[in-house]
Amino acid sequence: MKVGVLALQGDVREHMRSIEGAGATAVTVKRADQLAGVDALIMPGGESTTIGKLLDRFDLLEPLTTRVENGMPVYGTCAGLILLAREVVGDEDAPFRVPVLDVSVRRNAYGRQVDSFETDLEVSGFEETLHAVFIRAPSIESAGDEVEVLAEYDGAPVMVRQSNILASSFHPEMTDDERIHELFVSMAN
Amino acid sequence: MSDTQRETGSARVKRGLAEMLKGGVIMDVTNADQAKIAEDAGAVAVMALERVPADIRAEGGVVRMADPEKVAEIVDCVSIPVMAKCRIGHFVEAQVLQSLGVDYIDESEVLTPADEANHVNKWDFTVPFVCGATNLGEALRRLGEGAAMIRSKGEAGTGNVVEAVRHMRAITSEIKRLSTLGGEELMAAAKEHRAPYDLVREISETGRFPVVLFTAGGIATPADAALMMQLGADGVFVGSGIFKSGDPAARARAIVDATTHYEDADMIAKVSHGLGEAMVGINVSDIPESERLATRGW
């Protein structure tokens, strides 16, 4: 099982560590030929504007969309969630995306960096709460019928799954808790 | 907002934003138009300041934080994080910048220091700080004061990467050396580096710098950025190198591309074509000691 971490920009190292901790092999993906060699892909935290532009510049948007539509498991955190969203609402857009996940998101919905926060969440299927780190995080404003909500904060979804697509507005890779990465690896197996 | 439990301003949240900027380029800007050019080029953040370092060097005078009106204008016009510089030790400038909603404060030697003995007590703030360092001891003193991200100082405004290389090599080789020491040698090492013992011990045990380490000072070309990434930087600050060059938009984009593909020489070559004139450089050895910015702070 080879899990790629999209390494155009962002917290790649943390995801690689979490994936290895969850028992899979992690490799970086910067080019289309590298994408072709992985079984699953993580789209990490980072700046969605930047990562989106780089996906476009280095011709990854189309092959990535095709792979996910053909069933490759993908997990997006924070910026990754924005890039997977079908729709972005509000003043701040993210024009280059892989719009496969039927949700509508709002960028920086919780405020600027001084409003970034940590909290404990109930996650569907997990016995114990999960400590979640939200950094200039997006919110999920609405989700389609195919989308299963796995965790909520303040009455709004913050972690969702739609068949082979998993996404969270927080960063499990910033803690030592590898349960979400284990869930993702099991989706890929 | 409901009464749901949440904690803001923690070390993890402050250091976390820097983690999200890794592999990216942070660009100095003095107004909203430049900020937009930087964002369009793919910058991960912009740094608001009054004048770029090359102009500070040319014009002299006291250099302060940017006009709050300019900072607010920049905050409003981009979706990426906005950083801004305050003077070393000027905690009220830092309070003002926090109040303006900037996402990171750079307590910077590029501005005129306000306190010759003390840096800002960065633990007092909810907004995170980045600080410059020329060696490991200086970096760890800044972390001791609460910085959440470090950058090499380099010699800003010169377009000459030599000092950034010196500082990055100093920091990485000192980390390597610490990781070879036995426990009984660590207090002496802390004394030698004039650094907090706990941080020295942490680095000795992990072999890694505890926060994100960017590079800054003198980066003017895509190859400069890739050089610093190969030397171990987590990302790149570019100051005068973009807006003092012939074609800022093209150069900004090329530096972003080279930072992402820093190990791919073919890609660096490809993106380096047709960028027009680079900024005019200055040999650091031609600058009198008293005018060097890297010596500010301790």
In short:
The complex is a heterodimer of chains A (189) and B (298). Chain A is an alpha/beta fold and 189 residues long.
- Give the termini distance of chain B in whole angstroms: 43 Å
Uncertain segments of chain A: none
Question: What is the residue-mean pLDDT of chain B, rounded to a whole number?
Answer: 94
The first-level CATH class name of chain A: Alpha Beta
CATH superfamily of chain A: Class I glutamine amidotransferase (GATase) domain
Radius of gyration of chain B: 18 Å
List the strand order in the largest sheet of chain B.
8-7-6-5-4-3-2-9
Share in helix of chain A: 25-40%
Give me the number of helical elements of chain B.
13
Q: What structural class do the secondary elements of chain A suggest? A: alpha/beta
Number of contiguous helices of chain A: 6
Largest sheet of chain B: 8 strands, parallel
At CATH level 2, the architecture of chain A is: 3-Layer(aba) Sandwich
Mean pLDDT figure of chain A: 96
Q: What class do helices, strands and sheet pairing of chain B give? A: alpha/beta
Would you write up a description of this structure?
The complex is a heterodimer of chains A (189) and B (298). Chain A is of the alpha/beta class and 189 residues long. Helices cover 26% and strands 32% of the residues of chain A. Chain A has a single domain, classed as Rossmann fold, CATH 3.40.50. Chain A has 6 helices and 12 strands. In chain A, the strands form 3 sheets. Chain A has a 7-stranded mixed beta sheet with strand order 2-1-3-4-12-11-10. Chain A has a 3-stranded mixed beta sheet with strand order 5-6-9. In chain A, strand 11 and strand 12 form a beta hairpin. The longest helix of chain A is centred in the N-terminal third of the chain and has 10 residues. With 298 residues, chain B is α/β, with parallel strands linked by helices. An 8-stranded parallel beta sheet of chain B has the order 8-7-6-5-4-3-2-9, with helices on both faces. The longest helix of chain B is centred in the middle third of the chain and has 17 residues. Chain B is globular. The relative contact order of chain B is 0.15. The mean pLDDT of chain B is 94. At the A-B interface, helix 1, helix 3 and strand 7 of A face strand 1, helix 1 and helix 12 of B. Strand 7 of chain A pairs antiparallel with strand 1 of chain B.
